[in-house]
Design brief:
177 residues; two-stranded antiparallel sheet; 4-stranded antiparallel β-sheet; alpha+beta
Amino acid sequence: MKIKGSIITGIRELIREKNLEEKVLAVCDSRMEKIYLRTMEVSWVPVQDAGDFFTLCAKVLFPGDALGIRKLGIENGKRHFDGGIYKIIFKVINVEVVIKKSASLWRRFHQKGICEVSCTKDNVGIMCVRDYPELPEAVRMGAGGEALGVAQLTTKRPVTMKEDFCDPDAWKWIFSW
């Protein structure tokens, strides 16, 4: 299975903004270097390669941090939507809308998996991906981080997320706000 290259290109832009490209390239093997340098937004990248790429970049951006991949996703998500017209839009929408939109966008970025969302009245939302047991952990952590980063733009109240990766037939991200 494959994942859309725009996720890779977003991380590449983030790395360049932080002036860390040399450090990233210094730890890349030939496979990762090719992914880093040649991936275009419209490319499709094998999901395992994408997971390896997320892991490598998180180690450079957040050395020694067990939540580095999630933090990479958070920064990438915020980076995409923290400017321009989105600043206005995110003042009027809520976390529930963002989580539901993340689910509807799943198929644009992933060739497999069905993403569903359920929200409760007590400000809890569960995003669940089914039918994709081989989705690598690094990609799951990055995807959850991206959704969390975007959700955090909608409110001044804290938004938290925890993963429930116990059931490979139903990967879950649980958001509270």
